[in-house]
Write a structure and sequence with these properties.
By secondary structure, this protein is an alpha/beta fold. Helix content is 43%, strand content 13%. It folds into three domains: 32 residues, no CATH class; 60 residues; 158 residues, Nucleotidyltransferase, domain 5, CATH 3.30.420. The mean pLDDT is 89.
Length: 291
């Protein structure tokens, strides 16, 4: 109404009559002084919009954590307030859920081990327990040909950082071997328990030799129990929900760039409540190491 009055010079009295609003109500609105609660909601709304534009996958809890740690305002508000503001703005996280896997159980396993980890992922120190696995990505090139790419990674049970990872065009034993050797090279002196599923890579002679040479203890998930390797499976879920399922990839380069970018972001900036709003590398740099 105020804008119409300024543009057309129609009297406020006439506009109020046309709008069936009393003059007292209009002037009450015009001269309203915003309360502290209203001002706070406006600040939260500004942060919510800005974060959603950059990270459309974020739900309200992660968004609130981000506001507390990374926003210039460092607002300390409740999850419920962020949720209410998102609903008012009709902001929803863009996440698509899928379930898939690429575990190929060995037809003739050379080595099978008990589930020594028993889902006790965190030993209280870094480099005490590592979990590893392989996951699959797909992309379709301009000629309509479907291609596959495989990511092998190791995650630490305490700080939850990605210790090492290797990207390959084939899901073969070399991929798992290189990932393990890379982790050991970059963490000299580490002697963690290494937990795997019963895939053909991990039951092979070659993998056993690497583990045995490094003096590690090998633990394996029970048959059909993905939750036994839950920390690694959880990372696959985060990566794919936040960067993969909502996009279409048309080249190997694009998939590799996405994986590299996400793992750097995850290790260095993706704060987690279970890590007390720290990113994995922040925990690693401050945490004691396993003897």
């Amino acid at each position: 109404m105020k804008e119409v009055h300024e543009e057309t010079n129609i009297s406020i009295e006439s506009l109020c009559r046309l709008s069936k609003v009393s003059r007292a109500a209009y002037y009450g609105w015009l001269n309203h002084i915003k309360s502290g609660r209203e001002l706070l909601r406006e600040k939260v709304a500004q942060e919510v919009v800005k974060i959603h534009q950059e990270y459309p996958d974020m739900g309200y809890r992660r968004m609130n954590d981000w506001i507390k740690k990374y926003s210039e305002s460092h607002l300390m508000v409740s999850d419920s307030l962020v949720l209410r503001v998102r609903r008012i703005l009709n902001i929803k996280s863009v996440i698509k859920y899928k379930t898939d896997g690429c575990t190929r159980n060995a037809k003739d396993p050379k080595y099978i081990f008990e589930n020594l980890l028993n889902r006790d992922f965190d030993a209280g120190v870094s480099n005490a327990r590592w979990m590893t696995d392989v996951t699959e990505f797909k992309y379709t090139t301009a000629d309509g040909v479907l291609h596959k790419l495989y990511l092998s990674a190791i995650i630490d049970g305490h700080d939850r950082r990605i210790v090492s990872y290797v990207i390959g065009d084939r899901n073969n034993t070399a991929l798992a071997f290189e990932t393990m050797e890379k982790a050991l090279k970059e963490n000299p002196g580490a002697h963690p328990m290494i937990h795997t599923d019963r895939g053909f890579q991990y039951t092979s002679n070659g993998f056993h030799k690497i583990v045995e040479k490094a003096g590690l203890v090998h633990s394996m998930s029970r048959v059909g129990c993905c939750a036994d390797n839950g920390l690694m499976e959880g990372f696959w879920g985060m990566l794919k929900r936040e960067r993969y399922y909502t996009r279409k990839f048309t080249s190997r380069k694009a998939v590799v760039s996405m994986i590299n970018g996400y793992i750097y972001f995850y290790n260095n900036k993706r704060i987690q409540r279970k890590l007390h709003l720290l990113a994995p590398m922040e925990v690693f740099n401050a945490a004691p190491m396993a003897a």
